[in-house]
Amino acid sequence: MPLIAASRRVSRRKLLRIGGVALAAGLAAPWIRNTAFGMSSLGNTMRLPIWRGTNPFSLGVAAGEPSGDGFVLWTRLAPDPLSADPAAPGGIAAATGDIEIAYEIAEDPDLRVIRRGGTVLAEAAYGYSVHLELGGLDPNRPYWYRFNSGGMESRIGKAVTAPAGGQSLDRLRLGVVSCSNYERGYFSAYRHLTDEQPDLVLFLGDYIYEKVMHGGNAAHALRHHSDGVAAATLPHYRNRYAQYRLDPDLQRLHAELPALITWDDHEVQNDYAGIWSETFDHPADFLLRRAAAYRAFYEHMPLRPSRALPQGPDMRLYGRFDFGDLAQISMLDGRQYRSREACYGPPDRGGGHQVNAGDCPELDAADRSMLGGAQEQWLYDGMATSRARWNILAQDVLMAPFRQRQPAPEHDFAVSTDRWDGYPANRARLLRRIHETQLSNPVVLGGDIHSFWTTDLHLDPADETSPVVASEFVGTSVTSPGPDYDSMMRDMNSNPHVRFFDSRQRGYLSLDLTPAALTARLQVISDVRDPQATLATLKTFVIENGRTGAVTA
Ligand code: FE
Ligand code: CA
To answer: Which of 350, 394, 427, 543 could pair with 273 as two cysteines, CB 3.0-4.6 Å apart?
Structure first.
């Protein structure tokens, strides 16, 4: 068992600055023999850092990406989670080097029946985060886990394994969340979702907001991003995630519920598309920022490093997750591989905007893609081989068309280039492929638009008489304010494929899947400004097996 050798490379000054790592006078090395943690597999010679009363697991724990025999566990050492020192992420000097910590996996919530234990590195290069992939466990059951460093213990988290491949599964309950701007309110939606104890939570983007509210806007902020500046560098992105994870509702959600996670734009910058930003003149400059943002995202999420370890500005986020014969969930990445938004002004910039379709022939170009060629092909391959009863496509933005009538000229309609309306050729390919493969019960999930949508996705989205090939639910936001209800409703007559819309309340979606039906509850909180907000169900929809289109329950 290797010792934690990094100690001797840490100066006394740095250790004092860390605050959590003790430096006892006269002690040759700031480590002690760990006696509080007695797992025999660790041996009795292992030495761990002393944290001097400061628990380094301030950001909690998380689990995700279940397979038939395992999952990935996450934590991050951060004794000073909002450290302003860029050379000391989370309060640990970057020069300290990797820190070995212990973990234990149990079959019971009190960790009496330990199934597995060992050590794993909190990597200095990744902000002292841990991404522990585990296999060899039993299918379709919960496990509980805890980390330990220098006698300090993390809270206990819960993880689950999926059913073994193709095994029959009679129920799967999913929470679906997006758009949790910390400045815009309290995370009561996360609290109530955790109380529901679904099997899994799908995060569909805008997990953080990189920006800050300032000027006249600041008056609307209910609480503030701690650093007061828009995140653009690795230390600032790190601290943004850390601040969100210090929220007790979000931290408890991750401890109790396993997650599947994709992103939207605000994890990096508003409305970016691939390598194009609305503020950078040169994509190469923007990619430096994207690299920092993706890295911080990785450092804070329960993502499998075998797939998602970032490489500079690139990170493989999309993935497929099977839950027996009941459900296949494809988590898509709608941002990283996008073509530039159509008909945007400055040549090397991107940005979402409204265009009149007739004024923008580029919109329909066949080579424009939301998902990028490789991800599209991967998705179609998965659809072709899926045996699941329910096929969930979880991604970031509204897929259905939404045509907004323009004041002048009177009969023109505008669409948003930042949503699937901006990538009609890709949308048409995807819907045609769903139709051709006769994919069983396809359901699209989305976020971004801070409102509830229940829509029919037609084979030809421009033709309301063409067959409906998939159903769509878009969750409202956890906190972010929705678009103006009355003005949106004025356009609904022009969009008959929209079965339901409401932008006035914050909350989440609860999905209950059985072989017979998918039931979707649109869950809303009483007041985003109230940390103790209560919960209600706004509406319930059902999709019966084999029948496209959600109906009111
Ligand atoms: Fe958002
Ligand atoms: Ca967004």
So the answer is: 350
